[in-house]
Predict the structure.
Amino acid sequence: MQTEFEFTLPVGYLDQNGALHKQGVMRMATAMDEILPLRDARVRTNQAYLAIVLLSRVVVRLGSLPAISTNIIENLFAADLAFLQSLYVSVNETGKTTVTVTCPHCQTDHEVDLAELGGA
């Protein structure tokens, strides 16, 4: 069973030294990953912060960064945050990063890997 999924961010995290980090790994969430953030004072004050805390727990690697903190997730570009939220839903609802899409022109179904869309 696959529990970790590689991804490429659409923009990338720009660290304080100017290095861009785009390649990463997200793991499937556990029940505790979803419960513990609810105890966080930042989440109790601002429910929107739940996504920040949750992603900081399940993104296990981003580029050459030694660890992923809420500060890193807070400083992602909006496109990257949206990408990770979408990937989180896909990984944790279906256990995979691929979805079936239908071409609006030819009506043909295609498998698309969401984890690869960021680097396109």
In short: The mean pLDDT is 90. The two ends are 27 Å apart (CA to CA).
